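Repro case for the chain-ordering regression, as requested:
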Amino acid sequence: MVEIVFISTLNGVLYGMLLFLMASGLTVIFSMMGVLNFAHASFYMLGAFFGFAISRHVGFWPGLVIAPLLVGGIGMAVERYGLRRVHRHGHVAELLFTFGLTFVIQQLVEMAWGKLPVDYRVPPSLDFPAFTVFSTNYPTFKIFELLISVAIFAALLLAVKRTRIGLIVQAALSHPDMVGMLGHNVDGVFMLVFGVGAGLAAIAGVIAGPALVTQSNMAELLGPILFVVVVVGGLGSLSGAFAASLLIGLVQTFAVASNASLASAFGSLVSQRAQAYLGDIWNVTVAQIAPILPYLLLVLILIFRPRGLIGARDS
Amino acid sequence: MSAAGALELASGRRGRPLATYGAWLAAAVALGLLPRLFSSGFALTTMSLMGVMIVFTLSYNMLLGQTGLLSFGHAVFFGLGGFFTVHMMNVVEGDGAPLPLFLFPLVGAAAGLVFGVIFGAVSTRRAGTAFAMITLGIAELVSSSALILRRFFGGEAGVTTDRTGLVHLFGVTFGPQIQVYYLIASWCFVSAAAMYALTRTPFGRICNAVRDNPERARFIGYNTQTVRFIAFSLAGLFAGVAGGLAAINFEIMNSAQLGAAQSGAVILMAYIGGVGGFVGPIIGAILVTYLQATLSDLTDVWQLYFGLLFIGMVMFAPEGVAGLLARQQPLLQARQLHRVVPFYLLALLPGLAAAAGLSMMIEMTNQLTGHAPDGPAMVFLYAPFNANAVLPWLIAVVLFLAGTWLFLRAARLASAAYDEALATARMRKSAL
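-- result from build under test --
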């Protein structure tokens, strides 16, 4: 039991940090530009596939640098030549534009790498157990993922709180028009933030790719969970996104590790006939419903606390 | 539906009942006569599917176009409507209750309404982007649950039914596709008329007000949340009708029908057709269904073309096909259309060249990656060549770049000519 709790906590925090790498970019872009970037998870997928392609030719470490830069560049181009153009047609058009982009990126990835998972391996330099607890080997690569996420989190925090550009970003979060009035190049800041956000998502893709499955549906699987994180945390709140990322990371990992079902909990109290009637709901285990837990959380949050955990604004 | 009638509806002018009812009459006659014109099996199945999709897309436009609510989970109501219809058909078949097939879309409607009320209560508390994300979350919730609740949703295989096993009225068995076509066509007509009538009621107008200026709608005493909620529930109802029709048409329902792909398809159809008027979604549903049926035979990356078409529409023609058509109407009335048509043709040529160049690059890439085992030899537009040779790539790139450049120039000319013709048209109108 202690073993499961320990390993699940570690995995949950790791998953949560990876989620936050993506959700942070998403929520900053949303607060500044009012655009919910549907394609954010697609940048994560592009990061994983670029990382895979680069790692085959020059190795994992160059990929960790080059892939995010490439994806960041793509993100900036998307903002400059796509979103900025669509902006005058309103928010719905912007949302639909990024929605169409996810579609196109997925098709392009499928065209280039096919629909089956690609063989994206953990680099040999990190492919050994870091430590052993209760006879379970914990892989070094996961520790590495955790370290990278924490390091980027710290760097991001420093950049936002301590640098000049961070100050402008912070100001633009709440008063974008005023920042423009003061003579800052808001368009340039938007492009930069969009690029950095895409790059962060790509880093998450490069380091999550070998541990999870690198496949053309990975954006489709992760995208909705990211939106749940952003809504549950409170739209536009970075600290909220952080809390929600960890919460969802932990909830999902613990759920996967649990084997409980209604049948195992109340099996002896209910008659056979009632059990047959309840059917699927009765026998389903918590592990099986793990994928829907984030969405259940979303609905509950919306009913009881519509502005999210730490959200400040209502819309 | 005739083009003139379509434009009449798109502009939504009042005070000319003959024009409005004439368009509906023409639509009814067209629906009746279409199977005479296109009687092949392929045409019948495609037209049946178009009918289903028209209802589905129109129901979606009650949200996006009329009320300004962008939903990413509309297929939930389509799918649930379909599943309830299938199960009801199977139950009735077992019991032998005398319920004819053409009533069964009502089951879908009821299911769509009930779930529209349930999910609407949660999601319409918010508007705008938050609403969009909530619908996405609910859609994921439902489609993931569908894979867990295997008894009701039938797992990956889905649930099948037999539409001919119900009671037969007047000897109509609904075995042949033509009979199903007429069933779908009549439901499509009735639903479209009902949804159109709804846009003409005070409620429909308040929906528009909530879309355009929610703050002001609140000030004059309307609860915007209630308006959104009612619109959402009714959209669920009509999506349920479409789902029921789909269940009857295919005789099978599976969880893919309520998933993200289907929700995405309806957004594509509505937006490509145009969400501004009532006719847009109809055009979109017909166009996209037709393209799906034909393109998927020509190329295996047809979804990529849809994505590109969609992005292109969002970027350059956000009012959709119907909007582009509706813009020509004042010119048509003032007999000024002949002044712009040559410019359109001028833009069309390089536009087609650019599209051909882009498509050639896509197909060559696909040949080299997706079809790598087949070798580089391929055929594009009847021309055989090797996808790894330099010359075809050069041709494709030149076609694309030069075509795009010329198209942009021609488009600028056309837009100037349009403005000029429109100014003349307005002058004549005010002179009258």
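Ordering looks correct now. Residues 2-216 of chain A form one domain.
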